[in-house]
Every structure is written in C-alpha cells, then in structure tokens.
User: Fold these one by one.
Assistant:
Number 1:
Amino acid sequence: MSVNFYDAYKAFTHIGYSGRMDQSSISQNRQSRRSPVLLSAQIVIEGADTAVVLRNLSATGALIEGAKLPPVDTETTFKRKDLEVSGRIAWVHGKFAGLAFDRQLEPAELLRQVPKPKQRFEQQYRRPGLTCEPLSAADRKMLEMWATSAPLARLGD
C-alpha cells in the first residue's frame, strides 16, 4: 500500500489544524526557516495580477492568502516589491495556499522583503519623585493667596 504524500499532508492539515493554516510557529521539518509577515504581494496567473496577502516567506516558498486562488500545480509568478520569482501552487486550503518557488532565494533577497523588527519600547512605571527644592517668591505668593482666599465657615465646607 503506497501513501501519496499530498493526500497525507491534506489529511494532516485538515485534522491537525482545523482550518488554521498559518503554521509558522509550529516546529516542523522544513527545508528553510520561515519569516512570519503580513504584507501585500501579487501573484501573476496567465498574465493577470492577483492581489494576495503574504503570511510567511522562506527561501523556498511562501504562504499566501487570497480570495481567488488558482488550483494546485498552477504555474505562477510571485511579486513583492523588487522580488519576482516563478513557482507553482503546491497546495490550496480555503483562502490559503502554499507557493513553492522554482529557485531558492538568496539571503539578501529574502531579507529585503522581511521588515526589520521594530524597537521595543519598555514602559517604566514609576511614581513621580518628590523634590525638595525651595519655592520661588512667585510660587510662595500664589500658594499663600490660594490657601487664604476662601475662608471656611465651618469644618467640611
């Protein structure tokens, strides 16, 4: 009994991930490291550009999301900024598809497509400090006027 790899992959994906196709965080046996992104891109099918969302990118392929994706084994060209690489649709599941490139991307090509991580800003929650600076003459006068401007008739008013 021989098992077709594609059929096994479809069954595993359907059962194991319940329709959630962004598997970039799952440790898998991959040919190259994936970079999770959320960027606009295009695929060219029979001369027509189709807008897609790039979900992750590696040197050998990409995970794309789109409303109208071509069937499996369709020859296509992937475009993102200055990158243009031919490939084929390896699998389709709902609005997600795996794209296998015909050639492996060079590290420089790959890094140009992946945005640099934003610098993390760590908030510091500190109580405002109390200073022991003496009041200026103007500040002292304003404080005295404020404290004596409204005499209280009785406690609590």
Number 2:
Amino acid sequence: MRRNSTSSLGALHPVLFFTFVYGISLFLAIFVCRTVYFSINQDVASQTKNEVKTDVKYTATTASIGVLK
C-alpha cells in the first residue's frame, strides 16, 4: 500500500489562499466605500471650514492682484 505523504497544510493551500484574497478584497472594498461615503456626506462643520478656507484663498489672490496693478 502506498502511503499518502501530503500534509494537511499543503492540502489546504488553495483554501487558505482564497480566504486571504477574500479578506484583502473585503478590507479594500470597505475602505473605498467608506471613503466615498464620507466624502459625499460631510458634516456641516467641515463644510464651513472648507468655505472659510476658500474665501481666504480667493481674498488673498484678489489682494495680490490689486497690488500688482
């Protein structure tokens, strides 16, 4: 009789590989979806901060153009 010398870890290699790939895919999908969701649904405080920063940037640009004339 021939003895089977395949280890159990070697036999589970495809299962472990696809489990690992599935885990990475799930992590990346959650990360991407979370990033898109939070970029679309910003809270009011962060929108106000962005508006203030934009106003300051345009004011500074307008003032520097006024100085050049």
Number 3:
Amino acid sequence: MNKIIILIFFLINTLWANIGTNGDLKVLKELGLDPSFISDSELVSIYNEYSSKSKISYFRNILKKSSLNAQIVRAEIENENLHDAVFFIPMIESSFVNQTRGKNSPAGLWQIIPDTAKHLKLRNDEFIDERLDLIKSTDAASLYLRRYYKKFDNKWYLSILAYNSGEGRVIEAITRASIDRYLELNPNRNSGLFRSYQRSLDDYQRTKRGVSSLYGIYGELQGMEVPFDFEYLVQNNKQKQYLPESTVTYLKRIIVFSMLSNRDLFDDIKKSPYKLEKVKLPKGVSLKSVASAIAFSSSELEKMNKHIRKQALPKDSKANFYIPKSKLEIYNKKIATIKPINEKKEIQTKKETQTKKSVDKKVVDSKKSDKKKVLIYKVKKGDSFESIAKVHNISVKKLKSDNKKKSNLINIGDSIEIYK
C-alpha cells in the first residue's frame, strides 16, 4: 500500500516533467526556432525547475493575486494577434504588479524605461505616467513587439530578445554571429567585403550609432545565402558575448512558460471580479469623488488608474480613466453632478486657514505672556525657597518647578524667576 502511495506521489510531482511533446515542438516552431533547440541543456533545466509542483503553485498564485492585470494583458494580446508567449513577458518583468520606483526608473507591468516610453509616445511627467496605464502600456508594448517581429523576418523569438536587450544589440548579434559561423565553415572566403562588415560591426559596438547600416549588412548576407543560426549564437555566446547571457535565459524562460501553458496549467485561474471600462473623466474631478458617486472603493479605483499621479486629472490631460464595467450606468447618471476641484478656491481657503491659525497662535501666545509675568529676584543672605515663596505668595513647589530646582540649595546672588 505504501509503495502505491509513493508511486502516485511521484507521478503527481513528475506529471509535467518531460519536455519534448508535440505541443512543445509546436511552440518552438511558432516562435521561429528550430525543433532541435528542444535539447538545449539550460532550456531543459529551466523546464524541470518550473514544472515542479511547488513552482506551478507559485506562478498560479502570482496570476491569482493580479488577476485583473493578467486578464487585461491576455485580452490585448489576443486583440493584437500576438503569440501567446508574449503573455509571459510581464510575468518575468513585474510578476504582473503595476508599479514604479520613480519617474526615471522602469515602470508598469512591462517595466518600460523612460526613453522607450518617449519612443512609444507614452506620457511620463509629474501628473501622468502612462507606463502605469494598464491598457495603454500593454498596447504600446504590443506595438513594439509587433514592429520587431516584422523587422526580424517574422520571428517572435527575435522580437522577444529585442524587447529585453534592445533592437541594436540584437541586429548586431545576429549579423556578427552569421559572419563568424560562415567564416568558420568557409575559412578561405574571408574577403575584403567580410572584413568591411566586421569593421562596421566594431564601429557600431563602439559608438552605438548606425543601426540602419547593420540592417543593410544583414540583408546583404541573406542575399548571399549566409544564414543565421540561433543555436550557434547560444553555443558560442559565453565566449563571444553576442548577447547578454541574461537575455538568452530570458527567452528560454518565456519558452518554458509557453510550453507549460499549453498543458492548461494556467487556464483555471480565478477571474477578476470586474472588467474595465474606459470613460471620459472631466478635468479637475477627483478620483475619490468618483468612487463615492459610484459606490466603489476609492483604493481599488486608484489601483485601476495608477497612471494618474495626482488626485484629479490636470486640465491639459487626455489620459484614459477606468471604472468597473458594472458601474458604467451609475457613472453616466452621476458624473454630471460631481463638482470639479476648484484649485484657486482651494488654495485661497488653505491660505485663509493658515492665516487664521497663525493669528490664533499669536493671540494664545499673547494671552500666555500676559498671564505669566515674570519677576527676577536676586537671592540675598538668609533667603530660602520657603521665605521667598512666602513673600511673593506662591508655593515652594511651584517656585522650585519654575526654576527647575530639585534641591533646596540656593546661593547668594542667584537669579530666581517668579511667575504670577
């Protein structure tokens, strides 16, 4: 009986442990990779790690905690007709957590850097950070990936590499690796043309300028039937540093996630209790006012609209604003009744309040000053706290307290403060 239990436990824990199914090969083919890549040792190692019961549970928990964000990414990817593997980029980039560490740091589900945001026309200033806009940032990332998919001969794996390390780094890597492999196979054909190609690559590596010339070289190599072999790049990458090792591992992790997804391991994740609806928010209306009007949690509404960095939209903003779809009807009824924040009035009110507080404080201080008139008494021969207190009609305890004295010792010439 114990042997049967152990066998069942073993089968459960190794249920997804075998890599190389027809579905796995299909993932490689759809991404643009050769089926032989299935035997890559690091890919197999990542698969064995990620397919364990504990890891599957961990990944499922990530998706459960960020179900709304995950659903938005899934829907937008399907709308844009991107490969399913793209869904797992935010899993690696941000664990589907929509956050930033600052204006100049990577931000959002897709961890978009400021320069890329500018290139993708995402607003990023003190009022709005569209890298945190759940839908707009996903659309921008989709546009980026689609653009490089087309540039790199309709190969998704190269587009994913470009997303991680940049377009220039990838076109340089595949061009250099293609030339190196060709010359290894044809050592007698290292003509002046290939040497000029290598000089152009060296110039780019030094200056990071001239990406278009690299595309020109890559196109000429294809015309000369000099193919690019990704497995060659991977096998020689540690020695020749075509790409950062982290970038190659990044791609392999995406591949493994896609393979595990094909086994329906992430399909039954609990769905978010609501879907988003984009609405037009009048300028100056605060998020808290909207939340109150539609009877919805203000903290949840702020989570949906993290790209709005202030409590209300600025007057020059055309930023998206999201509410739960179930609240659309009540929003349309109530929005006209919500008054915008009157900034000038608010500033004036704050000034008046501050002025009043300042005046009140002066009055209080004045009253305190009037109440506490101080008399300085110089100690003479034969004086004591008791005699001084008796003459001025105050208690010994108060006299000692006002002068911060603990003992009864005083000296001739000491100054004693007497408050009445």
